[in-house]
Amino acid sequence: MQLLPFDLADLPRLLAMQAQLPLHQKLYLAANLSNDLTDHAHGNGRQVRVAWREGMPVGLAGWVNQGVQDGEFYGLPVIAADHNAALLLVELLIGEAKRQGAHWLRINTYPEESGKITALHGSGFSPVFEFVDLEIALPTNTENNPMGFGLHRIAIPGIDFTALSRLHNRAFLDVPNAPAITPDELARIWLSPAVHLNASQVWLDSHGKYRAYLLIMQDGSLHSFGVDFTCRGQGIAKAMLSQAARVAHQNGLSKLESVVASTNVESWSLHQSFGFIETGRRTVWQKNLRQKLT
Fold this sequence. Notes:
alpha+beta; Aminopeptidase; 2 domains; 8-stranded mixed sheet; 4-stranded antiparallel sheet; 8 helices; 12 strands; 31% helix; globular; acyltransferase; GNAT family N-acetyltransferase
């Protein structure tokens, strides 16, 4: 096998490979491959390698080093047709993470990915938590209730991304796999054509302070949302979700999808109270790359 840089010309054969993979991998590969692997987080495609065997792709691995200054490193996605391909890709990511000085590397797996799970076990990874995939079917009739709470909404083109990044990073301070994000990186995400402009929201108080936001994509996936700690417990998050659901349904979407870490009890409870149901789980595995001092 050999590892080569990702090229968009490889896409048809990579999509053909997905036809042989379990359901969850098919959905990821078919729906998101070309966009996710060429985004800013993956170095516009530079941080992706494809594993080839006898002229055919047998896997791919991308890495996200956002947060590496704090020791964080993520293998995402890692898709392999078999154990040997998975082992090669995992070794690649370990080497890259060490080269950049990361303290640890995380990779996630679906239950069906037996070859990848075996490769992670053999390479010294341990499970640390789970991601829970959630979805909710949108109702056919939703009321347009005002937001209230003394907040007013700002249009996306007028966002101060420095202020929004501060709110985002505070909201995700204790959430795993959520490294701090810079204003420039946040602007790239919010100003992307993939963002649902009408359903996404940013809310300010009467003093102009950023208090809450919800980012939803055109396909109905909730990218992220957060409420300032001083404003929690008032129902603001649920109100934002209600507005997003109404607008999404009016724009032809039949459901919303979200992901929550199993350790994020507050977000888990919010999703359940709103009516989201669990559709799948991914285990997050971690390999520590630095010896602990004794």
